[in-house]
Amino acid sequence: MNIAIEATGVRKAFKDVEVLGGVDFAVNRGEIFALLGSNGAGKTTTINILSTLLKPDAGTATVAGFDVSREPDSVRKSISLTGQFAAVDEILTGRENLVLVAKLRRVAEPAKVAAGLLEQFGLTEAADKRAGTYSGGMTRRLDIAMSLVGSPEVIFLDEPTTGLDPEGRLEVWHTVKNLAKRGTTILLTTQYLDEAEELADRIAILHEGSIIVNGTLAELKKLLPPAKIEYVEKQPTLEEIFLSLVGKKKVEVTS
């Protein structure tokens, strides 16, 4: 497969504090790649370097075939970034938010593009309501829809479900899976291990400024001793109880 994102020996320090001490990884085109790590591990710093918001102190990185340091404009034309907080104007309607972004990105037929994305993300009925009236899940879906204006090759999702309720998380998971099915490359940072397990084709763990493990979930499981087989009564989790009571089923987002 072609490489969509590649980082080699990337380093970054702020004053005397080294945040990234030589990060190496690659993401294939059309893959969902999850970057895990504790608070302060350097996940957001990595995203900011790959999206040209920060310059690395050392090392190289390419996105969509372009060097993030030497060709930042080309990188920006190929990507979209959805941060930890939705970049939605709550005064505007969902449609107006999308049309605005389309005009800023100089996309042809902004209204047509907005209508297509509203339908794709299940927001047509709420299209002409103020975004400030949307639920958390709807707001995040609109935020991701806005990031797709211009059909970027690569999308960076920095902790996209932080602060969402269980239903909202499921909505975002479903959206992310559908994007990957259409061939979009997604680099996802998250602190929720179940989120990475549900979504990611491959997972990397960033710890103290470097990648300590990188592989599929099956490969990561092999790093631990074989599981003991025990027969126990399985009790439903609180999440399963909640989703059952509100009429949602977790299986809605499985492949």
DSSP E strands, number: 10
The CATH superfamily appears as P-loop containing nucleotide triphosphate hydrolases
Alpha-beta classification: alpha/beta
Largest sheet: 6 strands, mixed
Helix proportion of residues, in percent? Answer: 25-40%
What is the overall number of helices?
9
CATH topology: Rossmann fold
- The helix/strand order is EEEHEEHEHHHEHEHEEHH
What number is the mean pLDDT? 88
Strand content: 25-35%
Rg calculated over all Cα atoms: 19 Å
Shape: globular
Task: Please identify the top-level CATH class.
Answer: Alpha Beta
CATH architecture: 3-Layer(aba) Sandwich
> How many structural domains can be distinguished in the coordinates?
1
Low-confidence stretches: 250-255
N→C terminal distance: 21 Å
Question: In order across it, which strands form the biggest sheet?
Answer: 6-7-8-3-9-10
Could you please describe the fold and organization of this structure?
This protein is an alpha/beta fold and 255 residues long. The protein has a single domain, classed as P-loop containing nucleotide triphosphate hydrolases (Rossmann fold, 3-Layer(aba) Sandwich), CATH 3.40.50.300. 33% of the residues lie in helices and 25% in strands. It is built from 9 helices and 10 strands. It has a 6-stranded mixed sheet with strand order 6-7-8-3-9-10, sandwiched between helices. A hairpin with a 2-residue loop joins strand 9 and strand 10. Helix 3 packs across helix 4 and helix 5 runs parallel beside helix 6. The longest helix is centred in the C-terminal third of the chain and has 16 residues. It is globular and about 55 Å long.
